[in-house]
Design goal:
This protein is an alpha/beta fold and 294 residues long. The chain contains twelve helices and seven strands. Strands 2-3-6-1-7 form a five-stranded parallel sheet. Helix 1 runs antiparallel to helix 9 and helix 11 runs antiparallel to helix 12.
C-alpha cells in the first residue's frame, strides 16, 4: 500500500515551461594582468581538440562576446564538421561558460531569438544550428544577419487597442553556433560574417577531458570572472582602438568582422596581435572571394 502524499504546486510538472536567467560570471575585484588570455586559452585546450590557430581565435572571440556592446559590429562564431562526434557541442559549451550574460540553447525559433535579444545585451550559444535553419526559417537567418549590427532590428505587426501597429525587435547579440555541415547549410551572407572553427575527431591519445559542470564549473567561473575583469580594466583602450593598426588588406565586411578581435589583441600584447593577424591572413588566403591584388 502506498502512503497518502499531499500534492503541492512544487510537485506538479509545469507544462508551460519556466523562464531561465542568463548565465553570469562572478564579480572579481583584484587587478588582472594580460596573462589571463593565456589562462583562458589553456582552459579551452583542456576541453576542445583544436589547432593553436583556433584556440587563439576562440580566446579573443570570447573576450569580444563578453563585451560585444562596445562594438558596432559583432561577428558570429561557427563550429562545423562533416561528421558527428567531433566535439562541437562541448566546444560551444566551453565558450559559453566563459561568457557573462549568456544562454546555451537549441531548437531556437525566430520568436525566441527576438525575445532573448530584445535588450541588446545577451550572448547566445546555439547548438544544432542546422536543425534550426532546416525548417525554412528565413526569419531566423535574417535576424542572424541584422543582429550583427548594433542597430539591428526586425519589424513585426501586432494588434493594439487602436488597430494594427508596427513594432521593432532588437536583434543585436553575440552569437556562436555549431552543427554538422552547418557552414554548407547557412546562407552566404551569414557564412561570410562568421569566424569558422572546423572540428575533427581526436585520435587515440588526443582526447580532451569531458566537460562536467558539476566538477568543472568553479574553474570556469574563476577564470571567466578574471577575464571579464581584465576587459573592464581595459575598456577605454579596447573601445578606442586605433583601426589604422589593422592590416591594410583586411577591408570591408572582413574589417568589421576582425576589428573586435584586433582591439582585444592590441591591449593583450604583440604576441596576440600577431596571432590574430595570422588568422585574418589565413582566411584571406583560403577565401574564394580573394582578388588577384590581395
Amino acid at each position: 500500500n502506498q502512503e497518502d502524499v499531499s500534492v503541492t504546486q512544487a510537485s506538479v510538472t509545469n507544462w508551460n515551461g519556466a523562464e531561465v536567467d542568463a548565465y553570469s560570471l562572478e564579480t572579481y575585484s583584484e587587478t588582472v594582468g594580460n596573462e589571463i588570455l593565456d589562462e583562458v586559452e589553456s582552459l579551452i585546450r583542456e576541453f576542445v581538440f583544436a589547432t593553436e590557430r583556433d584556440t587563439g581565435l576562440l580566446t579573443t572571440w570570447i573576450g569580444h562576446a563578453n563585451k560585444f556592446t562596445w562594438f558596432k559590429y559583432t561577428p558570429r562564431l561557427g563550429f562545423t564538421a562533416g561528421v558527428h562526434e567531433c566535439g562541437k557541442s562541448q566546444a560551444l559549451e566551453v565558450c559559453q561558460l566563459l561568457t557573462n550574460n549568456s544562454y546555451y540553447l537549441s531548437d531556437v525559433t525566430p520568436a525566441s531569438f527576438f525575445t532573448y535579444t530584445q535588450h541588446g545585451d545577451k550572448a547566445l550559444f546555439i547548438d544544432e544550428m542546422r536543425d534550426c535553419l532546416g525548417k525554412g526559417e528565413s526569419s531566423l537567418r535574417s535576424a542572424l544577419k541584422t543582429g550583427m549590427k548594433s542597430n539591428g532590428s526586425v519589424p513585426r505587426v501586432e494588434m493594439g487597442p487602436h488597430g494594427r501597429r508596427v513594432v521593432q525587435f532588437r536583434t543585436y547579440s553575440a552569437v556562436a553556433f555549431g552543427g554538422v555541415s552547418v557552414k554548407e547549410t547557412i546562407d552566404i551572407e551569414n557564412r561570410s560574417r562568421t569566424h569558422w572553427v572546423p572540428m575533427q575527431r581526436a585520435m587515440l591519445g588526443e582526447d580532451t577531458e569531458t566537460l562536467d559542470q558539476r566538477k568543472h564549473l568553479p574553474k570556469f567561473q574563476e577564470i571567466g570572472s578574471r577575464y571579464l575583469k581584465w576587459l573592464r580594466q581595459n575598456e577605454d583602450a579596447i573601445r578606442n582602438y586605433d583601426t589604422s593598426k589593422m592590416p591594410v588588406h583586411v577591408i570591408g565586411r572582413r574589417r568589421d568582422k576582425w576589428l573586435p578581435l584586433f582591439a582585444i589583441a592590441d591591449v593583450a600584447g604583440s604576441k596576440w596581435v600577431e596571432r590574430v593577424k595570422a588568422c585574418a591572413f589565413e582566411e584571406l588566403d583560403n577565401s574564394e572571394e580573394m582578388t588577384d591584388n590581395l
